[in-house]
Each structure stands twice: as structure tokens, then as C-alpha cells.
Amino acid sequence: MKKIIYKLLVGAILLPFVGLAQETKTNNGKEIFGDMTARHIGPALMSGRINDMEVHPTNSRIIYAGTAGGGVWKSNDAGTTFNPIFDEYCQSIGTVTLDPNDPDNTIYVGTGETWTRNSVSVGDGLYKSVDGGTNWDKIGFDASERITSIIVNPKNSKEIYVGVLGALWSDSEERGVYKSTDAGATWEKLLYVNAKTGCADLAMDTSNPNTLYASMWEFRRTGWSFESGGSNSALYKSVDGGATWNKIHNGFPEGNLGRLGIAVAPSKPNILYTVIEAEKDEKKGLYRSDDAGESWKQLNNDFGITVRPFYFSRIVVDPKDENVVVKGGLSGSISRDGGKTFKNLGNMHSDIHDFAFGIKDSDILYVGTDGGVYRSWNGGNTMEIVENLPLSQFYHVSVDNEEPYNVYGGLQDNGSWYGPSSSPGGVEARDWNSVGYGDGFRVLKHPTKKIIYSEMQGAENVWRYDVEKNLTKTIQPLPTKETPKLRFNWNAPMAVSEHQPDRFYMGSQYLHKSEDMGDTWQIISPDLTTNDPKKQNQEDSGGLSKDNSGAENHTTIFTIAESPKDEKVIWVGTDDGNVQVTQDGGKTWTNTVDNIIGLPKNTWCYHIEASSFDKGTAYAVFEGHTTGDMKPYAYKTTDFGKTWTNIITPEVEGFVRNIQEDYVNPDLLFLGTEFGLYITMDGGNNWYKFTNNMPSVAVHFIDLQKKTSDLVMGTHGRGIIIIDDISPLRDLTPEVMDKNVHFFANKPTVIDEQGGFSSGFGNETQFVGQNKTKDVQIKYYLKKRHTFGKMSMEVQDMEGNKIMELGPGKSKGINIVNWGYTRNVPKVAKGKTFSFGGFTAPKVPAGTYKVVMNKGKDTFEHTFELVYDERSPLSPSDRKLKNETIMKLYNMAEELAYLVYEVDALMEQTKTNGNTKLNSKLNDLKKTLVVTTGDNYVGSAEPQLREKMTDLYSKLASNYDKPTASELDNLKVISERFTTAKTDFNKLKKKSKAYESLQLKSFEDFVESK
Hints:
By secondary structure, this protein is α+β, with helices and mostly antiparallel strands. Strands 14, 15, 16, 17, 18 and 43 form a six-stranded mixed β-sheet that branches. The protein has a five-stranded mixed β-sheet with strand order 60-66-65-62-63, with no helix packed on it. The chain has a four-stranded antiparallel β-sheet with strand order 1-58-57-56, with no helix packed on it. Strand 41 (511-514) and strand 42 (522-523) form a beta hairpin. Helix 5 (876-913) packs antiparallel against helix 6 (916-929), helix 5 (876-913) runs antiparallel to helix 7 and helix 7 packs antiparallel against helix 8.
């Protein structure tokens, strides 16, 4: 048997250097980006594809979900809620396994999705955690690409078996079945067939861990075809811990085989189930062995069992009952008679990939689908979706100019949607609106009208949706006599014009243009692809099982970019590697790809970004993973493609999907890769990975909202992720980064006075997207981390009066300090109960303010503007009255607090001196000032002066409007009562000689005290 190359000596030599390189790169990014943080807005209502489900072997409340593109998620409450535990690593997951001897601590994760559709991501190896998922170490299989199975010997934790499916798009040696006898330190290859055949499934007889079953599958996908099956696909058995293997095909169909699943019945391990993809349709289906694989019998050939075997081959047997079997499929099937008959599971999202039974109660069933995780409490009859898994897989994203702006995008197997970037109470599931069916791809808002364009796979339908009138029309270009066959990519490109709002582009092998929003079309190009006939036989795709969904359409246009500087300059990129440009609106075209040095021939042009600064400048990114080339490619031209410059550096990991140029600084670029987001501030000389609340997820598309400078990413596994206001990055020149302190300019901040009603009912178990802050954000760059000496920050008015003390950030890089444009809450009189009105902080008026930061002996100042919403109905005189009234009540509340402080001190003195008469009068006065009985909940007492004062103050401070006449009348009553209280106390003070001897704080010190 071959020994794999993962030797301790090699690891000892290489790993420190690999780790150092990764640490340096990651730390540099964190140090630069500092407090800039991504926020996630979901959505989760349609969730995303689940590759693997795992249940804790002894605690049925603990469940893990390995997702297609969104990492590993763990639930501690039987699937009610989940949390991510693998964000720093590859987000494409093949399998999750717990060590049965130490399930609370030892977890293995094999990366790389194993349901090999065209849009699957890739893995980068095997990971292990020994602390329940807090920390992870990679333990090999860097070139595996996708791992299907991990089995830990239940009698020996050091013995681990791994099934490696291997590369999808190319030959690879790292395939087959592997074994470790030292808990993953070294590995031995046990079963290998050839560079095209991998392990699709691996199972163990846990009552006899030396008995193993391995399904080997010959397969290959290209950008234009899929081949499942061949002479090397087979089912093997070992009875000596993998030392030797034998085929167990007695009763199998003749001829070549495709993908086979394998399952051992836990309650009776002699009973095995397999699902077979065979040459003849009547021989496909579910087979059962009652003698540990010595012989097999076909039991079922239903469509639900045989459909798309490459995508649905998982079989799971009830741990308590060997005759209860579930099988993945379009709807998911369950048998209760040992596989003879099946029925569909309860209503849920289609495309079912994995199952997990409850450990103690088999009526509890967890199901992984293309739309997320579902649970059943009654054996699969009814299903409920887990609502807080934001795993949506976007192919494309765009934004509009509404306030707040909306985000648009299409999802893998979940249609097309749009929703707000922020929403009262957070971005909830109900905030998202459907604008398309099927596999959703590009979604574009008309520049000036309430019209949305959307599409489904292969331009099967292209919709123009009038939002206001709720009218939908299909508008896709159709074949004509001149063009009898149009080739649209599965992810067909669309584009709208910045120059002519009704202009709309689509790409087949030709570029189609409409000047009337899709009602009529003209072709403005020749065939811009290679038109290679060898890549146009999609009807033969699938191998043993035909699979022509449109996903393999090739030699098509994939990206369209009209220059923002010149409507006659249009760029087109194709999936077979061409980069075409016209400078005369489509009359003539030039293929510039031969001018790109170092780019392999026919590498997919995934995105072209036409520059906003110069019409001859554009960026093109390419990805060759469909040929097994995982390298990143991104180029820039400044001369209409006559020459191209490589802008990729060694820091970038993962093939590239998208690039976005900033609209202000042409050297600021954002790169979406298969393993996350990279940013350069110097035109591509240096790239830094952004990791602040940003997982290593595939970023398929990026858009930049011009008004807000928000970077919006459509990720293929974690939904929409936004980095709010990237404008500080525009100023990060070498000169700025060499300054000790640099404050970034603030746009005027609009004081938020809006207030409506939002309900959180039903959100207890849902994902709710985080809103964009409405605070002032003080942003500054520190050359070095502040570690020694005093550092303070406060907001002042322009006369130098202190308004609010803030806690400064002290980290190297960008620091962000938020201020909600309020003063401190007023100092409120102490009573028996809380005065809830006193918890309101008053907003400062609009105007110019400054931040003063003291850092050691140095002082730095930064000014910024607060403005009112121009839609506000208040006049300047209304504003003046409102602010004066609020501050009058604010000051009164603090004066009352000091008065009660004096009363309490004098009462204590009179009690000590035995002056009971004066003490009683003081107590009577206090009862009119604050509540002295009851509690905050069910024993509320009659409101006194404090409550009346702070309640009115809170109402005015929380209201957008000026005080009403009634409120002003109420203020007069409160003011008169307060004047009377102060007069009464002054009279009592005069009767007490003890007052003069009291050691009281000054009013200023009292207000400042905690």
C-alpha cells in the first residue's frame, strides 16, 4: 500500500513557513482595516444547500450542519437555532464527524462539497478540533478538493478512515480511502483505483470496526459536460481494517456503474443498502443485502430513487429499525418495509441531500436540502424549516438608490429576490420580496423606473417586473430565421445602460441590445465566442444518467460591461476565454485575449469591470477551476485591451470571481475570490484579505453603492454581506499611513428622528440581519497601537464646551468610535423606584462639532457636521423651541436630583441629632419629590414630581416634533411645583443649624459623579 506524503518531517519543515506567511498576511489586513466590520443581512427564509448532517451520538440536542458554501454550523437546542463554528476556514463542507469516544471535544471536518453540480465550490483539506470547535488544525489532504466520509473507530480514537472523492474537473492522485493510526498525524492510502475515480461513500460495521465498505466512483465534469460512471466504479468490502479489498457485486447489474451509495443498518449490520447508477434504466435503483454484501437484490426502481444519482445518492437507515430507510432525491423518500416501497417525505424545499435520525427517538428526523435544514417530529410526515441559517447562495448582487437602498440578487435553486439594506428592527425574512423563480441569477433595477429585470437558468425566462403595477412580462431574446439557435449560459449575462435608462443588454453567443426595456431586440455583434462544436453537445451530458439541465451550456457570453464614460465602448467576456471590445457601439469588435500574457488558453472570463475614470481602462478576471486550474487571474488594461497588466500578487488565495473598482479612488479595488474578499489600495501591488466578521466564503459578485460608499457582496453560501462606508480606504495612501494619527473626513451625518413600530414577534428563532448604524462614526488611523500613557476622547461644541466623553480605539490601523449625537442621560433624583423617563439621552442640535483626542502629550482635533433630515416638517423656530424646552427639563431634572440629595443628607443629619420634627417634615417633602414606596413592577406608587418631570422630558426628547400647547402647559405646572418645592426646602434649611455643617458635593461634582 502506498504511503501518503504527509510525513512528520515534511510537516515540521514546511508548516512553520506556511503558518508564518498566513499569519503575516492576515495580521496585516486586520491591522489596516481595524474596526471596519462586515455585517450580514441574510436572508435566511430561503437558506441554502446542506451537504451533510451530523447528530451527537449521546446528546440528541446537539446537531451539526455541513453546508455547501456556508461553513459548519452547530445547534445545542435540537436544531432550533444554529451558530457558525468554522468561519476562518474553507466554507465548502463535505462531511462533519464526531469522535464517538470524545464527541464533545473532538470534531473532524472534511472540506469540499460532494454533490458535484456545476456550481460547487472546492475544499482545501481535512480539519480537526479537540476543543469542541473553538480552534482548528488542518491535518492533511490539501489537494483532496472534496472529502465525502470520515469514520473514527468507536473502539480506538486514533484509528481514522477518510474517503476522498477528489478533484471534480481534472485528474488527481489524492483520491480513495485513507487510514490513520495516530489520530491524523500520518496517513496511509488503502484503496486507490486511478486519477479519475474517487471514494463516493464509506461505511463501517461499528460492531466490528475491521469491516468497511467503500463506494468508488469514476466521474468527470467539464465546463460543458458531465460524465458519471465507467468501468472503474465499484463497491468494495474489507474485513481487515482496509488492508485488503474485494468487490461485492453478486447481484449487481452488468456493465459500467456510476455513483453508488452505501449504508449499514446500525441495528443489524448484516443488512446493507446501496443505490446503483447502471447502464440500463431498469437496473438502476435501490439494492439490499441481508448477508453483509455476499449477495444483492434489487428492491426499488422508482423515479424518486433513481433521479440524478450524482446529486442524490445518500442512504440513511434508522438506527433502531433496519427496515426504515430514507433516500435523498427531489423530494426525499422514506421506506418502512425494508426498501420495497417508498413515499415522499413531508412538504419542504426540493432537492434532499442528507438525513440524521434522532439518537433516542427515530421519529425525530433532520433533513438537509437545497433550501436549508428541516426538522420533523413525526417520522417525516410533516417538516419545519430552521429559520436562522443564513446560507443563501447568491450568484449576483446589485443595488439601487433608494433610502435605505435595496439589494437585488439571484440564488441557487431559490429564485430571485430584493430586500432593504436596513429595516426597522433589523432585516427580517418578511422584508424580502420575490422577483423570480427557479435558479435565480442576475437581478437589475431599472435606473429611473420602478422596474426590475430578473432571470432564471439559461435565460429560460427573463422577466420585466413593474413593481408599482404588479405586472410581469417575459422579454428574453428568442431565435429567429437568421439565428435559429441561441446559446445562453446557465448564468446568462444582463446589463443596463448608465447612458440610456431604457437600454438593456443580454448575451447569448451574440450581444443583444434593446432600447425599449426588452420589447424589441437587435443583435449588435457576430458570434463572440470560439464557437467550438466539441463544446456544444450538451444533450449527451450526464454519462450513465443523462443530465442536461442547461448548466453545461458553453461557448457563451458570460459578462457584459458598457463603459460609464462612453456608451459606444462595450466589453464582452465569454466562458471559453474571449475578451471582446467594441468602440463604435457594436459595429466592429476586437478580441483582445491574445494580448494577455500568462493566461492559459480558453480560461473562463468571469467578469469585466469597465472603469469609471477612463473609457480605455477595464479590468478582467478569469477563473480556470473548470479545467482544474485553481490559480487567481486578474488583469488591467488602459488601452482598450491592446496590453494587459497582471494585478494579482501571491497574497491572493482562491480563484477569482469578481472585481469592483472604487468610484472615487481608481487605485482602490475589491476582489471577490472563492475564499473571501481581498482589497488593494495601490492598484494591485499589495492585496489584503478582509476578515472582520467576513468568513472565507466564495464571493461571487460585488457592487458599490455610490451614495453611501457601502460595499455589497453576494456570497455563495452566506447571503448578502455588507461593509458599510469604505470611504476611509480611499485615503489610505503611504503618506497617511506614515502619520501617527489621521482623522478621516466625515460626510454630514443626518440626525435620525424617525420612529415607527416594528414587532419582533416570531423572530425568536429567525435570523435577523444587522442594520447600518445611524450614529456619527469618528474614524481615524493609528500608525501604531497606543500602549503607554493616557489617551482620551471627547466631543465638544465649537466653543470648547464638553458634550460627551467617548472611549477611543487604540489599535493599529482604522479605529471607529460611534456617537449617537446625544448628551449623557440626566442625573436623576434617587428614589425607591426607577424613573424610566430619566433613561433618555437628549440629542444635540444640528451644527458643527469637534472631537478632541488627547494621546500622551499630543492633542488632535477633528470637526464634523450634524444636519437635520431635509424631509423634516420643523422650521428653525420650531427647532429652537424644541431644544430649549428639552434642555430646560433636562436641567430641571438635574436640579431636582441635587435637591433630593440635599434633602437626604439633611434627613440623615436630623435623624442623628434626634430632631424628629424636622426629619418628619423633610420626609413629607421628599414624598412629593420622588416615589418612596412600592417597586418598579406590580407595586407602582403615585407618580411624584420626578416622574412627572422626567416623563415629560422623555416624551419631548424622543419625539421628532416641537412641544404641543398641552405639553407646554404641563411644563408650567411642573415648573411651578418645582419652584414651590425649592421654596419649601429653603424654609426647612433655615430651621436647621445642621445644614451649614453638612459636607455636600458641589452641584457640578454631584452631576459628574456616578
